[in-house]
Design brief:
This protein is mainly beta. The protein is 2% helix and 46% strand. It contains 1 helix and 25 strands. The chain binds 6-O-phosphono-beta-D-tagatofuranose.
Length: 294
């Protein structure tokens, strides 16, 4: 490894750099594509295929602070999604995104550039957690949980992806037609059924349950669609904060709701994971961009 002004060149396609705030990130390159993986939270912040506008979005108001989550990219929600099931003092979306992870290994082959990080062993009892980021003609993120204890490990999780779009009223999300969802904004957890593509004209916060379906974000103004496929995930969360919630979030610009959409590959709500001792569970997300609608 060579160090130049604090950068660490690991290979011709992987460099460890100083990012915003006091945080460091791996820059991965592959055939003109680029991705950034912060050690803080094992947080994928940036993904830009060759010839494309950035695919992931982050807020210009985001904190880059080792004690706060980054707003945007792909936050890792683990070992719980949303509020802690019974302790209101615990942080939303778990501890993984608030912790500095450790590098495990790197590879740069003709097929892909890959960096793997792990949650430090002392962070959570009876579990080990790794995240692998693989950059090729697409972006793959794999979150792997191993139950290292001697009793069942129960958890919920999400790769909470924020995607960059041009103008939210012009965007639709397809692939979840006829799937059931819980409206997180409703007073009850009753199930609704999705009819037709999802469009956006108000705050939207839905957990689609018991679905392994792929999704596509269709963005006519940017002349592209973003295809999201997943493995070992039975929930998909779709979220846009719209006007009032955007104003209530200190790390989110008032009008930034217009340029982002969250489509999150998860196991949450009723899709809790129960992992037996010694067993492994790997949630995988694949993101592929297609130019179309010329
Ligand atoms: O995924 C949707 C959601 O659960 C929303 O309810 C909203 O809270 C969002 O996550 C962001 O949560 P955060 O804790 O990152 O502000």
């Amino acid at each position: 490894m060579t160090t130049i002004s604090e950068e660490v060149i690991i290979s011709d396609r992987i460099t460890l750099k100083n990012g915003s705030g006091d945080l460091r990130y791996f820059e991965l390159r592959f055939n003109g594509a680029e991705a950034h993986l912060y050690l803080h939270g094992a947080h994928v912040l940036h993904y830009q295929p060759a010839g494309q506008a950035p695919v992931l979005w982050h807020s210009q108001a985001s904190a880059f602070d080792s004690k706060k989550p980054i707003r945007g990219g792909i936050p890792v929600c683990w070992p719980w999604f949303g509020a802690h099931p019974n302790d209101p003092e615990q942080p939303a979306h778990g501890i993984a995104r608030l912790t500095e992870w450790e590098p495990v290994n790197y590879s740069a082959t003709e097929a892909a550039t890959t960096v793997t990080l792990r949650l430090p062993a002392h962070c959570y009892p009876n579990a080990s957690l790794q995240l692998s980021l693989e950059l090729s003609e697409q972006l793959s993120v794999t979150l792997t949980t191993v139950n290292t204890g001697d009793t069942d490990l129960r958890f919920t999780e999400a790769l909470h992806s924020y995607f960059a779009i041009q103008d939210i009223p012009a965007v639709t999300v397809t692939g979840l037609e006829e799937q059931h969802y819980i409206n997180q904004l409703a007073p009850d957890a009753s199930l609704h059924t999705q009819t037709g593509p999802i469009s956006f004209a108000e705050e939207t916060d839905r957990i689609y349950t018991d679905t392994a379906h792929d999704c596509t974000i269709i963005d006519p103004p940017l002349h592209r669609s973003i295809h999201i496929s997943k493995k070992n995930s039975l929930s998909t969360v779709v979220w846009n904060p719209w006007i009032d919630k955007s104003k209530r979030m200190p790390d989110f610009g008032d009008s930034e709701y217009l340029e982002m959409i969250c489509v999150e590959s998860a196991n949450c709500g009723p899709n809790l994971i129960t992992l037996a001792p010694g067993k492994t569970h790997a949630l995988q997300l694949n993101i592929h961009v297609k130019n179309n609608m010329k």
